Amino acid sequence: MSLHAFFEGEFVPQEEAKIGILTHAFNYGTAVMDGYRGFWNSGRDEMFLFRLRNHFDRFLANCKILRIQVAPTTDDLIGIAVELARRCAVKQDLLFRPLAYKASQSLGVRLHDLADALLISTTDMGPYLPETGVRCRTATWRRIPDISVPARAKITGLYVNNALARAEAAQDGYDEAVMLSENGHVSEAGPANVFIVRKHRVITPPVYDDILEGITRDTVISLARDELELEVVERPIDRSELYVADEAFLCGTANHMTPILEVDRRVVGEGEEGLLTAKLRGLYQEVARCARPDYEHWCTPVLGRP
């Protein structure tokens, strides 16, 4: 496999893309990241980059928070992304990681008077979590509030908050952590947004509970409403609602959709993937692989085949 990266304005073999040890973002977490998937469709002999425009629109908006400017338009980034995927020339799913970062070889806590740079790395990482389902615990570490570090910005340094929660869960024998906001409401999991199903209503935390405004989250909401004709409610979720939910699942670019089987040693629903979760997960896979004509506008072809 020949994976490539976009680094310092060029496409290079990924092993050649290296930063210096004094890079500001490496020392202080002053970078904004994103992640998008390339899904291989064997029937069409084509890779599709899923919701690429949405990812890069979000990415550039988030760069404003850290005063980073890396490209004039979303279209410029889409062109880079398509060419990078084409150069990788593999017939399998890939995960791409754009990173806009403070690139100066300089120490000192600040955002001003620093050079900005862009890189996009590539990995063949499969689903981030077990597809059959996960056992979760609520973390003792609370989600950092927007007034401190905005979760919506996907700032790299912020992910220490998630890492502390996930490490705690793993050391206690769980697969994943569910983080609560400062006011005690369900916020999100370490790498993913949280959904529950109660009485055929799909419920997910609102953006003001310090969540990432996830692209996969938005996809799930659209599919639930438009394809399954379900009521979707964005509202605060108490921790105890996880215990009494009929179904629960996590979703994100890295893990796609993952059923929650247990929370804090309490079985969720029947302790297996629920019916609505399974339907949504199947729909998501079809849409992401450009197998549903109504959603082809979400899929950017890499090779340009009909």
Structure description:
The protein contains 7 helices and 17 strands. It has 306 residues and is of the alpha+beta class. The protein folds into 2 domains: 4-123, Aminotransferase class 4, branched-chain amino acid transferase, N-terminal domain (D-amino Acid Aminotransferase, Chain A, domain 1); 134-288, D-amino Acid Aminotransferase, subunit A, domain 2 (D-amino Acid Aminotransferase, Chain A, domain 2). Strands 8, 9, 10, 11, 12, 13, 14, 15 and 16 form a 9-stranded mixed β-sheet that branches. The longest helix is centred in the first third of the chain and has 15 residues, at 74-88. The protein is globular and about 50 Å long.
Entry summary:
With 306 residues, the protein is an alpha+beta fold.
How many helices? The count is 7
Q: Roughly what percent helix?
A: 25-40%
Cα Rg: 19 Å
Low-pLDDT residue spans: none
As a percent range, the share of strand residues is 25-35%
If you average the pLDDT, what whole number results?
95
CATH topology (level 3) name of the largest domain: D-amino Acid Aminotransferase, Chain A, domain 2
Annotated CATH homologous superfamily of the largest domain: D-amino Acid Aminotransferase, subunit A, domain 2
Instruction: Give the total of beta strands.
Output: 17
- How far is it from the N-terminal to the C-terminal residue, by CA? 25 Å
Question: Which of globular, elongated, flat, extended, rod-shaped describes the shape?
Answer: globular
Structural class: alpha+beta
Series of H and E elements: EEHEEEHHEEEHEEEEHEHEEEHE
**Tally of separate domains:** 2
Mind telling me the CATH class of the largest domain?
A: Alpha Beta
Q: Just name the CATH architecture of the largest domain.
A: Alpha-Beta Barrel
Major β-sheet, in short?
Answer: 9 strands, mixed
